[in-house]
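S1.2 Input.
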Amino acid sequence: MAAIGLGRADVMPYLSQGVRVACENSASSVTISGDVDRLNEAMASIQRDFPNALVRRLQVEMAYHSRKPFSSFQSFNANMEKTTCGLLETITEISFPSI
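S1.3 Output.
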């Protein structure tokens, strides 16, 4: 994961497959997440084109904002479907603002 001191619109052109905006912190700050090599490429390109922008890798043990833990969620969701008799819909992404 990396903190980028730019808005989503500025960052999107630099994201290749395997890297995505994981969190929109504000209109001028996003967190990106994804495969390490592609994340490094995106960070380098952003830093090159926006030398004054914050571009910093986040030191985290688990990228909770990424799709990496998604396989665990699928297993959890499958078990919940069994216990709730299928009342839960499959959820793949939830967007919400943080205050």
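S1.4 Remarks. The CA atoms of residues 48 and 83 lie 51 Å apart.
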